[in-house]
């Protein structure tokens, strides 16, 4: 039984293992990514049902451009299809959709569909679903530093005004709570340049299952594990 008074506000997920899942089953990597999209839908619905406020999926990293062109094209097709098929459903279910990451060199037609989806759902008050696309945490920190420097040059802020709260306002995730829980599937124990600033105090959970095998019950088990943890944020609890 989950404690509804102790739910993470924000769950971040590294969806790892699509390719290995497919290989072990003698299937194409395409089949692995297709099944991965199904798990994304399933876990969004689970998070929504539980009452979690934000869920962020690491969908495509800045480093993923080094993959074979055929796989990149396939991933962009899946993203395009997802935007075409899911946005109306998200809107109907009062879900807000957001994307974080650099725009370049994302395809222009994808960027246009992302903007339309964000605009259509921006007033929704239910769970916020965030996709990290062309995302890298080091790049995000650099971009935040540049924005802060520009604000200083424009006379909007002073260097001595900077603190953690202010600096966070220059990040892609401005306005969102920091993740309370990070899930990375496939048994890999790395955070792979994902939300480095925001994950400072997050609980980390590394299930052995590949992402295509990570179903609703597995998500609930991650929340159960989170609720067993004692979060002290550097303090000593009495």
How would you explain this protein's 3D organization?
This protein has 238 residues and is α/β, with parallel strands linked by helices. It has one domain (10-136, 178-227): 3-Layer(aba) Sandwich (Undecaprenyl pyrophosphate synthetase), CATH 3.40.1180. It contains 7 helices and 6 strands. The chain has helices at residues 18-24, 29-50, 69-92, 108-121, 137-153, 164-168, 216-228, and strands at 10-14, 54-61, 96-100, 128-135, 181-184, 203-205. A 6-stranded parallel β-sheet has the order 3-4-2-1-5-6, sandwiched between helices. Helix 1 (18-24) packs across helix 2 (29-50) and helix 3 (69-92) runs parallel beside helix 4. The longest helix has 24 residues, at 69-92. 32% of the residues are buried. The model has no long low-confidence stretch (mean pLDDT 94).
Could you give a short description of this structure?
The protein has 238 residues and is an alpha/beta fold.
Task: Draw up the topology in text.
Blueprint lengths: L9 E5 L3 H7 L4 H22 L3 E8 L7 H24 L3 E5 L7 H14 L6 E8 L1 H17 L10 H5 L12 E4 L18 E3 L10 H13 L10
Parallel strand pairs: 1-2, 1-5, 2-4, 3-4, 5-6
Helix pairs in contact: 1-2, 2-3, 3-4
């Amino acid at each position: 039984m989950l404690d509804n008074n102790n739910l993470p506000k924000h769950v971040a997920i590294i969806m790892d293992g699509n390719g290995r899942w497919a290989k072990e089953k003698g299937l194409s990597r395409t089949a692995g990514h297709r099944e991965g999209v199904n798990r994304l839908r399933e876990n969004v619905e689970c998070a929504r049902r539980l009452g979690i406020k934000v869920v962020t999926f690491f969908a495509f990293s800045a480093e993923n451009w080094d993959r074979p062109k055929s796989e990149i094209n396939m991933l962009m097709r899946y993203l395009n299809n997802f935007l075409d098929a899911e946005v109306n459903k998200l809107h109907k279910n009062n879900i807000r959709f957001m994307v974080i990451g650099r725009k370049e060199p994302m395809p222009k037609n994808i960027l246009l569909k992302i903007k339309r989806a964000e605009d259509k759902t921006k007033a929704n008050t239910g769970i916020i679903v965030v996709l990290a696309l062309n995302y890298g945490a080091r790049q995000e920190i650099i971009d935040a530093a540049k924005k802060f420097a520009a604000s200083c040059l424009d006379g909007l802020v002073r260097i001595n005004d900077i603190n953690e709260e202010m600096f966070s306002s220059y990040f892609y995730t401005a306005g969102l709570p920091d993740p309370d829980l990070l899930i990375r599937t496939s048994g890999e124990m790395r955070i792979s340049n994902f939300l480095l600033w925001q994950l400072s105090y997050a609980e980390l959970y590394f299930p052995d299952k590949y992402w295509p095998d990570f179903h609703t019950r597995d998500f609930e088990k991650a929340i159960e594990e989170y609720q067993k943890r004692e979060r002290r944020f550097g303090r000593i609890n009495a």
